[in-house]
Amino acid sequence: MDLLEEYRRATVVFESGDPLGAARLLEPIVEAEPHNTAVRQLLARAYFNSAQLAGAETQLRALIERDPSDHYAHHVLGRTLERAGRFREALPHLRLAAAMKRHDDYEEALRRVEAWVGKNGGRAGPGAE
C-alpha cells in the first residue's frame, strides 16, 4: 500500500464531505505510521465530523501527548469534549488553545463553554453523548 497516495485519497474523501469514508482510509495509515501527526490529525477531524467522539478524543490525546504545545489539538479536543457534554473537561484545553494562539474560533468556543459552566456548573447539556 502506498501510504502517501492513500493519505491523499483520504484527504479528497474528507474534503468531499465523507468523514466516515476518510476515517476508514486513514485508520490503517495511522496504524502503519503512528507518529505521523498530519495523518492522525486528519483522522481525529474525520472522527469528530462523523460524531465518533471517543475516536476523536483518543487521536487528539495522542497528538497532545506527543506535542503538548499543539494548540489546534487542544482546541479540537476541547470541542470534542464540549460536544460530548463534558464541559468541565473541555475548559482547560480550550483555555490552553486560546492562550497559545489568538483565533476567533478558539475564543468563541472558550466563551461558549465558560458560559455553560457558569450557568450550569458543568453538567451535561442537550446533545450530550
Task: Report on the architecture of this protein.
With 129 residues, the protein is mainly α. It has two domains: 1-55, no CATH class; 68-121, no CATH class. Helices cover 76% and strands 0% of the residues. It has seven helices and no strands. It has helices at residues 3-15, 19-32, 37-49, 53-66, 71-83, 87-100, 104-120. Helix 1 runs antiparallel to helix 2, helix 4 runs antiparallel to helix 5 (71-83) and helix 5 packs antiparallel against helix 6. The longest helix is centred in the C-terminal third of the chain and has 17 residues, at 104-120. The mean pLDDT is 94.
Radius of gyration: 15 Å
Number of strands: 0
Indicate the structural class. mainly alpha
Q: Number of folding domains?
A: 2
Give the mean pLDDT. 94
Order of helices and strands: HHHHHHH
How is the main sheet built?
A: none
Flag low-confidence runs. none
Roughly what percent helix? over 70%
Shape: elongated
Percent of residues in beta strands?
under 5%
Alpha-carbon distance between the two ends = 36 Å
How many DSSP helices? Answer: 7
How would you summarize this macromolecular structure in one to three sentences?
This protein is mostly helical.
Q: How does the SSE layout of this entry go?
A:
Elements: H1 3-15, H2 19-32, H3 37-49, H4 53-66, H5 71-83, H6 87-100, H7 104-120
Helix pairs in contact: 1-2, 2-3, 3-4, 4-5, 5-6, 6-7
Which key terms come to mind for this protein?
mainly alpha, TPR-like_helical_dom_sf, elongated
